[in-house]
Amino acid sequence: MSTLKRKAASQAGSDAKKPRQNGSITSFFGAPKPAAAAASSSTGTTTSSSAPATKFDKEKWVKSLTDEQRTLLRLEIDTLHESWLVHLKDEITTKEFLDLKRFLDRETAAGKKWFPPKEDVYSWSRHTPFNTVKVVILGQDPYHNHNQAHGLAFSVRPPTPAPPSLKNMYTCLKNDYPTFEPPPNRGGLLTPWADRGVLMLNTCLTVRAHEAGSHANRGWERFTQRVIDLVAAKRTRGVVFMAWGTPAGKRVTKVDAKRHLVLKAVHPSPLSAARGYFTCGHFRLANEWLATRYGGREGMIDWALVEGGSIFEKEEKKEEGDGDEKVVGEKEMGKGKKGKEAAVVTTEKVKKGLKKGGVADVENVAPEAEE
């Protein structure tokens, strides 16, 4: 095993433990459908038709590559989880992807620092193997400062505090689940979500240090679109796609809304969050829908980020239907022009949109919601 491969495996195991996944909620979407495949009680892993028909012989595939391909694709061979590699092996041998790898090699040779660290570029694939994906949250560029990006969209490792967009995600979650607690010490590590089946995917996987967008249009967009299309095509039991902001929304336009749930809203960035993000209801809506596809509590995502702090166990202690609680974040949302009015988008409004299909778009139900 190469040094890079050992380092990647070690890092994946040290980010976070996998907390218990459990929960219960009354579903707007109806009674759970009979499970077409068995769901694991702890990891969300399912056995379904999405699995390869024949066992993938990775060693044989590597031997079939040219010497140059093996050199250029060393990172993918060593660190891309095999459950993804089996589906993406043809994509990563295309001219476009190999040109992307040549570009990254030139960046390195020129002394250009880029993020995330090499061993973390595909950490999303190891935390969320293909057959565990239930939710996809799309980001854009990785964070471009030191000790931030580690391969999961929006997530940062300790001791880096949660960036502004992530703090706004916590506010949204608090509105959906009032018992939610952010990580201690202003933390922003989201590996517990990834370990429970949430694919935290940036649409561009690398960035030059301190230069946002510096690796855009080099080939990552094509690759990550292939990842999105792959999930939409082969995770036939159903996946929730959360697309926040116009760029993310464009990435999911071809997702089959009869098979999957697409949730759209403005981006959680402080520049746009007050126009509908805080009360978009996406975290609760995702769970209500997942319960109908995967079966009750075991099918849902426990959004807790504090060890031993399951949001579902805390929810059960609250009386059902206590309804009109004060919306977290109203103070911030009310500062901008029409901010408070635009931000108050009830879950019921979004659910009405869902009745028309599998797409809930807060941008279409909230005033002043376009970016």
UniProtKB/TrEMBL annotation:
Catalytic reactions on record: Hydrolyzes single-stranded DNA or mismatched double-stranded DNA and polynucleotides, releasing free uracil
Cellular compartment(s): Mitochondrion; Nucleus
Matches recorded under Gene3D superfamilies: Uracil-DNA glycosylase-like domain
Enzyme Commission number(s) from the entry: 3.2.2.27
Bias (Basic and acidic residues) ranges: 315-341
Residues forming the catalytic site: 141
Transmembrane segments: none
Molecular function (Gene Ontology), one example: uracil DNA N-glycosylase activity
SUPFAM superfamilies linked: Uracil-DNA glycosylase-like
Positions in coiled-coil regions: none
InterPro entries to which the protein is assigned, alphabetical: UDG_fam1 (IPR002043), Ura-DNA_Glyclase_AS (IPR018085), Uracil-DNA_glycosylase-like (IPR005122), Uracil-DNA_glycosylase-like_sf (IPR036895)
Lineage top rank: taxon: Eukaryota
Principal location listed in the UniProt entry: mitochondrion
Keywords: DNA damage, DNA repair, Hydrolase, Mitochondrion, Nucleus
Name recorded for this polypeptide: Uracil-DNA glycosylase
